[in-house]
Structures are given as C-alpha cells and as structure tokens.
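Quick start: read one record
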Amino acid sequence: MSSEEIATVKRELLVRHLEAWAPAALHRARRVVYAHGYADAGGGASFQAAVRVLTDQADFVRGRELSMVATGAALPAVDAPFPVHTVPGDTDAMLAVALKASGAQRVPLLGFLDGAAAGAAPAPSTVAALTAGKPAEVLLVLPPGSSADPYRAGWPLFTQVELAVDDKPGELLVFATTTGKSLEGFKEALWAVDEFAGVRYRDPGDPDRHLIDISLTPHPGPLRREIVAFLERTGSATVTELRTFALTETVYRAADATRVVHALVDAGTVSRTPAHGRLGGDVVISR
C-alpha cells in the first residue's frame, strides 16, 4: 500500500472538512474547539495543515474564540493567531483531560485522531470523550483490519470508508457526528478530494469488496447491491429511508441513493407504490 498517497488523501479530507466546519461553527457559537490527537504522527504534517486552515479563518474569529487542543509524544512548534494548547504525552492518557481543561464541553467540537499514522488504534473512551461537544464530531482513522464498532457509542450518526489500493484491507476512515448536516458535508468532501496514485474507496458493507474510484459521480455498483440487500431484509422502505440508509450505512450520499433507486425502478428490479408520479420521499420501494 502506498502510505504516502493514503496520507495525502487523509490530509486533504481533513483540510476540506475543517474549511467547512470552522466558519460554520464560529457563526453558530462564541467558542469553538478543535482537538488534534497524535499531533506528532506522520511528522506532524496533518497537524500543521490544520493550523494553516484555522489560521486562514482568522477573519471569522473576531468576537469569537477559536482554540486548538493538541496531544502527542513530541509536538512540533506552533505559530498561530489563536490559542493552541499543546499537551505532551500519550493521546489516550491526555486528550480527555485536555478537553476538560480547555472547556470543550457543550461547545462546537471537532476531533481528528489518526490512529493508523500513530500505529495504534485509540481507546474507545478517548473517542467518546469528544461527545462532550455540542455539536460534536470526529474524524477517526484506524489501522488496516480494525473494526469501527467499539467507537459507535455516543454517536447518533456514524459512517466509515476503507482507503485502499488493492485487495488487502486498507486504513479505515470513520466519521461520527451528532448532526445530520455535518454528515452530509463530510460525504460531499469525501467524494470531492483529488484522486491520488490509485488510492480508492471501499465500502465496508459491500460483500463484494468492490474498489471505487474517487469521483464526484462514484460508480453505483456497491450501493445498488447494498440497497437491494437492505430491501430483501426489510421487504420495503420509503425513498427517504433508503436515502438515510445510504447516508449513514454506506460510503455514499443520499443523492446517490436517489439515482440508484431510479435505475432499479426503471430496470424492474424493484417496484414502487404509487406506481406513477414523482419519486418523492414518501414513495414506497419494494423488492
């Protein structure tokens, strides 16, 4: 696996998400906190990229308070126009304490934890500590072969995607949030990143483990299979329920589900009730 290209994809996704998150959070609240665990991992490249993005948001900070909490064994020097609280030490041992000390409770809070770059998955309690934010969200990267299930507690919205270049298990990128709008924004950023040297996505829920090229219009094959399997389990579902399923349980966006359902209806693979008219959210789709 090309670790350098994988690292570039992760960093670009972090940058894109921060660029959307910071101004929205600063508009919503007077105080916001960004937490970066394992800040020294990968030579600190992602940490420095995050500092640059937040520095560019300086115009939004007037009358607001933006701060960063960073943990890691050997933290790089930081020059930023906002408070950066660097806490040397193990992220599992220090992050929850640092969040509490910085007053990150009940304020917009975004965390980034690249356990894959650090060589070890964080403790579930470390990720759960980020749910103290309101709203809260986390970008979490797990080493190849890891399971995301232990990290679901406390997160009402949770999605995951595998970063891969071949048939071997890839790093697992997890996004969890307390708001649906943030999940939609993450999915848009996920498919908008540039493609790097064969890095592709794999949907953990796809039994065929199909590799998907990074594209604004991703190949619908895995989503088609997952929607058909979902309908076989449930018997039927509304278009709204299928859109929600795609958004929360697959790597795809809600809009991708609408396109797939249209194709399935046209092919006669599924039926719809009522049989005619616009394919609105309350239309029932049956296998």
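The chain has two domains: 3-212, 221-286.
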